[in-house]
């Protein structure tokens, strides 16, 4: 009899564990489905702007859900086919409810990408050129704290603002910071974690804090200092995604 009771108890415990495991899997699937639905329903597009009323929200542009802090939309222009990741902050003005005049304050060109958790703070004019890509947690601001009066807390002193301009085709790596007054030219690469201020010429690579030019394109000599890795081989014209997938599977085998 003890043996039978132990066998029954073991079988019952196993059945309970299987039932609990099934319930957990079902709950996990339900949560994932609900979150996927919320991400789709909560995304902001020109067709479905939700509560946000931007000065311009271009065709094909999408703000992923959940959004970060967004205010001053009437002075924010987003170009066509922009990708704005989750928890991205976009603000125009120092606080909501201000009248900032007739002109846009924050402008994104066509095809701009802002990675997850990035912040663009435009208390005065900030312009990001077309096809500029930002990795996650990039911080771009036209405002900086002042500390002129040593008798007052820094946070209570009136800040300084200067316009920021980022040219087309730039790449800003993860955690890059662009400070007030910065002017980046065309196709500038900003290394991860760099802190940029001042002028950066076209086709330059900057790194460090404060950021300094570490590589530049010379029309006669090419990149100086020379690149350490060969240029990627471009995909031949006419190759389809299906062919590329088949080639990748062939290489794996």
Automatic annotation (TrEMBL):
* E.C. number: 2.3.1.-
Write down the InterPro entries for this protein, in alphabetical order.
Hexapep, Hexapep_transf_CS, Hexapeptide_acetyltransf, Trimer_LpxA-like_sf
A Pfam family per the record: Hexapep
| Gene Ontology molecular function | acyltransferase activity
Q: Which UniProt keywords apply?
A: Acyltransferase, Repeat, Transferase
The domain of life for this entry's organism is Bacteria
Gene3D superfamilies (alphabetical): Hexapeptide repeat proteins
Q: What class of enzyme is it?
A: transferase
Q: Which family does it belong to?
A: Belongs to the transferase hexapeptide repeat family.
Q: What name is this protein filed under?
A: Acyltransferase
What organism is recorded for this protein? Streptomyces chengmaiensis
């Amino acid at each position: 009899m003890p043996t039978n009771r132990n066998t029954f108890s073991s079988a019952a415990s196993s059945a309970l564990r299987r039932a609990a495991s099934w319930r957990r899997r079902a709950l996990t699937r339900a949560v994932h489905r609900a979150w996927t639905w919320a991400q789709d329903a909560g995304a902001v597009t020109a067709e479905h702007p939700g509560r946000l009323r931007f000065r311009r929200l271009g065709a094909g542009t999408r703000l992923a859900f959940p959004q970060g802090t967004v205010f001053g939309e009437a002075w924010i222009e987003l170009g066509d086919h922009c990708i704005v990741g989750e928890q991205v902050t976009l603000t125009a003005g120092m606080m909501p409810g201000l009248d900032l005049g007739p002109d846009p304050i924050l402008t994104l060109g066509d095809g701009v990408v802002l990675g997850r958790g990035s912040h663009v703070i435009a208390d005065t004019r900030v312009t990001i050129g077309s096809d500029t890509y930002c990795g996650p947690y990039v911080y771009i601001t036209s405002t900086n704290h002042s500390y002129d009066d040593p008798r007052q807390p820094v946070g209570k002193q009136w800040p300084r603002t200067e316009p920021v301009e980022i040219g087309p085709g730039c790449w800003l790596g993860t955690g890059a910071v662009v400070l007030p007054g910065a002017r980046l030219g065309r196709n500038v690469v900003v290394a991860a974690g760099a802190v940029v201020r001042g002028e950066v010429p076209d086709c330059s690579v900057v790194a460090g804090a404060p950021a300094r030019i570490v590589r530049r394109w010379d029309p006669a000599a090419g990149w100086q200092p020379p690149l350490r890795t060969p240029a990627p081989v471009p995909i031949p014209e006419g190759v389809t995604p299906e062919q590329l997938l088949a080639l990748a599977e062939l290489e794996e085998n």
